[in-house]
Amino acid sequence: MSLSKRIFAAFIAFIIVPLFVLGSVSYFMFQHINQEKYAEQTETTLKAIGRNISNMIREANSFSDFWVTTKDSVESLQGAYDPNAVSEEAKKQNQEYESLREQELLRRRVLLTSPDLKSVTLYRNDDRVIKVNYFPDTTIPLEELEANPIFPEVLRKNGSPVWVAPFEDKRLTGANNLFTQIRVLLDVDTLQKKGILVIRYQMRELNRIFSFYSNESKLDRRYLIVGKNGTVIFDSKSELQGAGFADLADTATPKGLNLKTTEYQSKTLAFQGVKSLVSVADLQDLERLGVGGGWKLVSVTPWQYLSGDMQIVLRWMIFITVASLACAVVFNLLFVRRTISFIIRVVKAMRRVERGDLTTQVPVIGNDETTSLSKGFNSLVHRVSELLEDVKQEQRRKRRAEMMLLQAQIKPHFLFNALESINILAIQNEGRKVSKMVQMLAKILRISIQQREEIRIEQELEHLQSYLEIQKYRFDDLFEYEIDVPRELLRERILKLTLQPLVENSIQHGFEGIAYMGRIRVTAKEEGSHIAFFVEDNGIGIPEETLARFAFQGVTSLEEMYAESPETGERRGLGVGNVADRLRIHYGPSCGLILCSYPGYGTVIKLVVPKSAGGEAHEGQSSSGG
């Protein structure tokens, strides 16, 4: 992955993603806190509504208490109709009249006490039924009332009210499903049962209560009152009365609502298929007012309404995230990409410099820190190029000086011995031999003093043969030699004075103290793009320690070559190590010498030079150096 992509990915991973995570966590925390706060607020509201409902029921109870327990009320009923005051015939004649009279008296008294009262039915002990209706209503027969499961509770309370909510028992609440109060009518003096009183209320106060809290909170909220059997007995929107609450919301699973508990509950669940916050409060205070089984006050608020502000937060979070991502892209394109592109250009330029291309330059663009860095890099490369060129020039001068010094080394005692041999031949009147030795010595001197570093192989072999012939005159019957080089290689070039030191090593060291005829054989062959020379002798060989020294330290190094001989006071001549040094300096590490020797079996020296080493470039360089 490129650096620009990594930086962009890091920007996304360490800025955009944390921003998104922070926004998401904030959203859910805000949602949770908002739900808790709203649940607390709803609990307070439900408690307030519960108190208002309790006051409403208490007021209705107070009305019926006053009406059935005061002396005036009982006397009115007795005065309206007294069966002992008239004869049987009068009773029959005036029965309908007296009934109408009692009803009218009761109606007037009730209207002055409670306008929400819609019907009153009195079941007297004499099996008479007195009814007062303010709109059409049905009356349950006394036999059905006595057979109803609630009747024993009415008798047990002996005057205390028992309430039946709408839709809990339609036989008791009538065709209009009104709030119904049933109680025993007592004699105020003797507290004896006078009959059963059934009063039905419309409870318009409930609409006023829930309307007040709905308008006060300005929420799209629904209030329900659920009866003891799970039936909705009141709906603030007048839509769900009579429905089973279990059909509207989850009450069967652990995650749902438990209508049997008296604890306050507030849960998020589906109400009529819509996600809502449903809160339930138990109206415990109503039990002592005659409401048995415990009514539940329910508040239902659609989650969409609650999450309205949270949706705004979520949209802002998404907008900010997208805007941040867009800014990241713009930042990456305008700033990061430009900086990364500059770094990539510098890295590529550095790699080219590492490969040796010191002409590399970084384009100078802009007027900021990258411009200074580009100029500094270009200046550094230029300075390195200058220093490297200075080093190369110094190395060339040093190498040429070393080569000239190596080529100038001719063993002084060899020249002295050659002249001594010529003098001896002259004394013996061996003029032809003297002339031949002088010619061979002249060839050796001519090649040695040439300014060129490389010569043709043909010239190197001629120099080698002249050296061998002179040595044969000096060491008569000590050795014999053979030179076998293919004709096609004679025109190739080789560093001069290369083969002669190898042959000299064989004569001076290989044939020292031998009692047999020494043999030297010089051959050559092509090996790919190189030419390999082999100098073989049948001398005494080279000890292992000397071979090891040559392999790891170099025998007859330049420093050793310049050292004075303690025996003769002369400088040493060109040795095997010096030939290796010259080949390495001139041709590089791919060329050099290989020694194979074993004491008593002779020595083989392999010399490798490039086949194209004698090209025009080397020759031109040699000529310019001279």
What features would you describe in this structure?
The chain starts with a helix and ends with a helix. The protein is about 50% helix and about 15% strand. It is built from 19 helices and 17 strands. The protein is α+β, with helices and mostly antiparallel strands and about 625 residues long.
Morphology: rod-shaped
Q: What strand order characterises the main sheet?
A: 2-1-5-4-3
In angstroms, what is the radius of gyration? Answer: 65 Å
Distance between the termini: 57 Å
Task: State the share of residues found in helices, binned by percent.
Answer: 40-55%
Described by strand count, sense and barrel closure, the largest sheet is: 5 strands, antiparallel
Number of helices: 19
Structural class: alpha+beta
Spans with pLDDT under 50 lasting ≥5 residues?
A: 72-83, 554-573, 613-626
Approximately what portion of the residues adopt beta-strand conformation? 15-25%
Number of strands: 17
Q: Layout of SSEs?
A:
Layout: H1 3-69, H2 71-80, H3 88-113, E1 117-124, E2 129-133, H4 142-147, H5 151-157, E3 162-164, H6 170-173, E4 179-186, E5 193-201, H7 204-217, E6 222-226, E7 232-235, H8 245-248, E8 265-271, E9 274-282, E10 296-302, H9 303-306, H10 308-354, H11 369-407, H12 412-427, H13 431-448, E11 454-456, H14 457-474, E12 479-484, E13 493-495, H15 499-510, E14 518-527, E15 530-537, H16 544-552, H17 558-562, H18 576-587, E16 592-597, E17 603-610, H19 616-625
Parallel strand pairs: 12-14
Antiparallel strand pairs: 1-2, 1-5, 3-4, 4-5, 6-7, 6-10, 8-9, 9-10, 11-13, 14-15, 15-17, 16-17
Helix pairs in contact: 1-7, 1-10, 10-11, 11-18, 12-13, 13-14
